[in-house]
Design brief:
With 422 residues, the protein is α/β, with parallel strands linked by helices. α12 runs antiparallel to α13 and α12 runs parallel beside α15. It has 18 helices and five strands. β2, α5 and β3 form a beta-alpha-beta unit.
Length: 422
Amino acid sequence: MSSLALYRRYRPESFAEVIGQEHVTDPLQQALRNNRVNHAYLFSGPRGCGKTTSARILARCLNCEQGPTPTPCGECQSCRDLARNGPGSIDVIEIDAASHGGVDDARDLREKAFFGPASSRYKIYIIDEAHMVTSAGFNALLKVVEEPPEHLKFIFATTEPEKVIGTIRSRTHHYPFRLVPPGTLRDYLGEVCGQEGIPVEDGVLPLVVRAGAGSVRDSMSVMDQLLAGAADDGVTYAMATSLLGYTDGALLDSVVDAFAAGDGAAAFEVVDRVVEGGNDPRRFVADLLERLRDLVILAAVPDAADKGLIDAPVDVVERMQAQASVFGAAELSRAADLVNAGLTEMRGATSPRLQLELICARVLLPAAFDDERSLQARIDRLERGAATAPAPVFTTGSPAPAMAYVPGPEAHTPIAPPPPPP
């Protein structure tokens, strides 16, 4: 087994292997087919979404012996040098602007840029973290970026394109990268786990995707950590929730059921289990908000899972559908608002447990508020109670005898007045 990190072992070597960035890779491949390659590119977007990897692939496409081509041959010397585990090419220079972004570094680059490539078609500079180049450094590069020699190409990669000065930005072809959609990322992680030969339980991949937040590199790092700690039975859901710090689904089910039933004892018992189990109350509230979000969507769109609006295993979706059917729409929306407000209040709170208990109390007591949403939540709860209460039973029988007043014989007997007081 290689000691390389997972994201390095599976780093794409062609544009076809880059996931979730078709809006960038397709135009780049077409430009290579048409041989309309610009002298400078700006790749921007969130971290870990493929900017630097795509810059290396573009350099590989440009310097391939059969290129410029959208599909590197993988066999020529340049392709082997720039492969995933290759030694690198002397004609493709990567510079980290975070530590080499000053004016002296820019002047040194400018002086060396005019020398032709040693053995390749182009001399290519990949400048990572380009927003860290100082204004003086950019100004020193301006002339060579504006009018480079035929053999020279620049590829700038940055998470903050607005910090690249306009005079440089206007001379590049700008390609904005995006976060990778959860479904695409989950399928890719499943393929990687299959190639690694380690079984992964249902429910683990959605947790990894959520932890990675759309970044392929971050998701692969999380997956690498889980695979490294996997036992003979593979990566289990319990292991993933524990290692990543997420709340066990059983705790979320318990507190949601307590809210639905208006059972304060059960809700506060869950709070105690959260704290006594060593879980972070803030993480629990964040996960509870995520669960309420899913319930709100399921209440509005019953087939949300089939439409890709909810990313969860089948058994979890079935449990959430049952929970959503118990709540009213207004009650769910109000609970989500209260939990969201409580999560904001918990930032910097000295007693997270107390804040968590207050959140539960507010959700459980809609009568304590006079706003319209609380009123609607009380109506939802009353309707739910009326729907589950047994209907009254009416029986038919002989009618009761009519009651009538019949005066007795003494009704017309005169009565002597009482004697006067002495």
